[in-house]
Design a protein that fits this description.
The chain is mainly α and 184 residues long. It has two domains: 72 residues, RNA polymerase sigma factor, region 2, helix turn helix motif (Rna Polymerase Sigma Factor, Chain: A, Orthogonal Bundle), CATH 1.10.1740.10; 74 residues, Arc Repressor Mutant, subunit A (Orthogonal Bundle). Helix content is 65%, strand content 0%. It is built from eight helices and no strands. The N and C termini lie far apart (51 Å). Belongs to the sigma-70 factor family. ECF subfamily. Pfam families: Sigma70_r2 (PF04542), Sigma70_r4_2 (PF08281).
Length: 184
Amino acid sequence: MRDGGPQAYRPFVQTYGPYLYRTVYAVLQSPHDAEDVTQEVLLQIYRSLPDCRLEGFKTWITRIAVNRAIDFKRKKARRPEQLMEDGESGWGTGVKRREAVPPPQVLERSAEDMAISHDERSNIRALVEHLPANYREVVYAYYMEDKSYEQIAAETGLERKSVESRLYRARNWMKRHWRKEDFE
């Protein structure tokens, strides 16, 4: 398997694919996302096989799968419905897609769905505006403008650790002060 080349990929996928899918699905709870991430994990592991030690192999592949799933989940959480500005399509901003056309669900959105989505974005913006001033800037930059800690630190003059701390405290503040009903 380690030196089998492309012809050994199919047996590798048949042997480890179902296990890795279950592992990724346990983290993501989405069949579609789990399939995509599992494919990436299988390729990553297969490409790394020549360099790996086979002791603790199952632990190694499980760790790769879990880490990749967590990374995917974090990335997706930072882009909840992309919190787009008016007029943006939102389906491809910052996200690499294989096909050149938007997914069918985007094309089939009704005017009512778009109005509701616009209202939800406006509601979220209004809630963010009511955050304490020291949290508002970093929350807006991180979640709505999708900026990294480093970018926020450079723009605000804060240290990276300060940006992390403010985001952490802002999340705790939101958990204490916002209700789930505010978003429904």
